[in-house]
Amino acid sequence: MLGSGIGAIVVILFGWLAQGDSERAWAAGSGFSPAVHAEYVAESTCQGCHAREFEAWQTSHHAHAMEVPGPDSVLGDFEDARFESDGVPYRFFRRDGGYFVETEGPEGDTAEFEVEYTFGWTPLQQYLVALDRGRLQALTVAWDTEAGEWFDLAAGNPVEPGDPTHWTGREYNWNFRCADCHSTDLRRNYSPATDSFATTFSVANVGCQACHGPAGGHVEWLADGSPDSVPDAGFVVSPGKDLATETCARCHSRRRPITRHFVAGDSFLDQYHPEMLRDGLYFPDGQIDDEVFVYGSFLQSRMHQRGVTCSDCHDPHSGELHADGNDVCTACHNETPPEKFATIKPLAYDSPTHHFHEAGKPGSFCVDCHMPSRTYMTVDPRRDHSFRVPRPDLFRRTGSPDACTGCHTDRDAAWAASAIVDWYGEERHREPHYGEALALGRKGAPGAAAALSGLAADAGEPAIVRATAVEMLGDFLDSRTVGPVALAGQDEDPLLRLAAVAAAGALPPDARVDIAGPLLDDPVRAVRIAAARALAAVPEETFLGARREAYLGAVDEYLASQLAVAERPETHLNLGIYWSERGDADKAEAAYLQSLALDPDYTPGMINLAELYRATGRIAEEAEILQRALDTGEADAAILHAAGLLRVRQKRYDEALELLRRAHEAQPGESRFGYVYAVALDSLGRPQAARKVRADALARNPYDVDLLTATLHQSLLDDDIHAARQLADRLSALRPDDAELQRLRERLRR
Question: For the Doubled CXXCH motif domain, which residue ranges apply (predicted)?
């Protein structure tokens, strides 16, 4: 904790939560109502009229998503089974009809925990146990249903109790991490005042009403017999085509909630903010990298663009495919495609003449090449749903993997690319692919801005791809790229508008108004709250007049979207940054302190709070919080760097240099740390060491403008004209509109 003063500051936070700006925020985000909650009925009620659907659902993973432990639901070995991982022992046993695990608890002592629920079905099953303050936690040790053995999802990464990634920590907290996608009518009911949950659900697993909404009104309507008797309150009989995929996306996507609980039938983007094709989640060409589930991949596919929905391939109640093997694909992809998919080229797809592999062997199945899988949670392979054509030729330009060498592990991408040319012709390699533009953008390489601008404007590409390009343009905004961002803000697809607002956040505050201002009353909630966030630094009086009500409403929705997940430290970090930009230091401080009350070692909270103290002249408090982080002995690179800069301002140069060195060596790939450390070395009369640090950092970050500029400056001081010419050329490719740089290049050529 931060000392006795933190309690008073947290009171400040909840003071503004209960008054003024936040009063509307809490109300807008609240959805808990016992009357609405009571509209849910027992799932067995549906069976009477929908026997076939109910029977199919009972075989699904949804039906087993979370269950009370018993002989039919527990798959793991609880017959006094022993297991050890990273030196921590586990014992699984039964007693008095219950299921128990004995292992290291939240305080580090060995303790017994009763299993409250099973979690998942196959290929692995986890187990939930109760801790204090209403928390259910998922054990990291799980049961491999295929191998029939215990294994540890966190093996090889031992952490101590108190760490967020320990099984007792927030990253394995069921209430936030898992619950709303494994249960029906989930209400987290988190209390910020007590940091506790009173979480409820109507049905433990994913039942009929998880997708269709509360059926109480529907049942009453049927019993009454009059079509006009009562409305089907919140009940969605059959999601229309526009909602069909969104219904699945609610859980099968990488997203963050922006409301307190899911409402069936409401638009996905009115309830969630989806992730774009971000680095770390997807490879540059859009293939799955981290565990992103399905939605972001499927939105990239031609199938989605042609109107295919999840239920065209999967039975919506059992979750199983409509056919086995290649049959589910060849129902449409054959010599006589269905009329509604007339764009499919008529071919014998399930034939060696198409896939060039022996029938029935790996490589002959459609999914092998068009839906390659990656394994998550150690034992769970998931298939990429972008249904892409294999492009091993892209490896050289994007670094993305390819399906061919995923199987042929003894070969490389060049071999695979050559084989595809032999089979399908040279034209396959000539087809442009959006992955090339996204790869340039991630690197910050020359040509990135133009490539991303072109991709953003290409109406033939999937909306999520174009939106990703728009969002990335935030790193390249200038007179040439602001136009495509502005146009995206007027696009009919909400993903484009959402991305435009995100990119506009990189503009000076006044320049954001033209893009984000008109979106304050956008029909989509995710867009409205993004607009409000982007305009935080713009003086409120700018919106006096016709836009004032829209502005205030969007601000309320933004605050509510954050407070919907008030149990997370990043929520309060976001609020702190927001209030800092609004110029309200007291609210910003309270929010940062609350992030640290939830996690005393939360680095972003410490960094931002220290910066707030610096900006408001509270240098002693800045020093105190950074020193507290250093005293733990486990400070990360960002803390070391911030503390080093503080030592520079304190003129404690030797200490500063040591801290900056440690930051650079702890995270050598972070260009800013290398750049600042080199500046410090130069300033303290160690130019040779500075050159070495800059060279190393530039090798890791070849397109970093600050490193290139500093290295160019050093080359000019050294009178190394050859090196200076090369560096000036590299910089010019990144900054073609820099007139001063162009004049320098001309002088160097003489």
Answer: 309-336
